[in-house]
From TrEMBL:
PANTHER family found in the cross-reference section: PROTEASOME ASSEMBLY CHAPERONE 3
Domain of life where this protein originates: Eukaryota
One Pfam family matching this protein: PAC3
Protein name: Proteasome assembly chaperone 3
Organism: Cardamine amara subsp. amara
Taxonomic path: Eukaryota, Viridiplantae, Streptophyta, Embryophyta, Tracheophyta
Length: 124
């Protein structure tokens, strides 16, 4: 189920997916200066991460991911943010990502489904 609300002042999209018996609600917002993605199975924000492409002279792009709030010992959450910022920066290099993950299930399979759903419904 997907909706796009033209009346809301920020371009956004809402998507719901079912993963391993958990209903996951995803909201993707495209602000002028950043992308916000909220994915929740618990009706709350959960862990909030900030990811951006580092500007530099290096041929290979470098990415920075940090936990702003929440679980700092979950490498899969950091990997999820990194996968998304790598994709976003290949299209809009200067937009950082704020990612909120409020999940019951932190399995690799669920996180891959969330990444795929966000990319499929992207607003960048």
């Amino acid at each position: 189920m997907e909706s796009l609300d033209a009346n809301f002042p920020v371009r956004h999209r809402k998507v719901t997916l079912e993963s391993k018996g958990n209903k996951t609600e995803i909201v993707i917002c495209s602000y002028e200066d950043h992308i916000l993605v909220i994915a929740t199975q618990i009706g709350a924000m959960g862990t909030i991460l900030h990811a951006r492409k580092e500007e530099g002279m290096s041929v290979e792009p470098t990415f920075s991911v940090s936990v702003i709030f929440g679980k700092r010992d979950e490498p899969m959450l950091i990997a999820t943010a990194r996968r998304l910022i790598e994709h976003i920066s290949s299209i809009v290099p200067s937009k950082p990502l704020v990612l909120s993950l409020g999940l019951r299930d932190h399995s690799s399979e669920t996180l891959k489904e969330i990444v795929a759903t966000v990319i499929e419904n992207r607003l960048w």
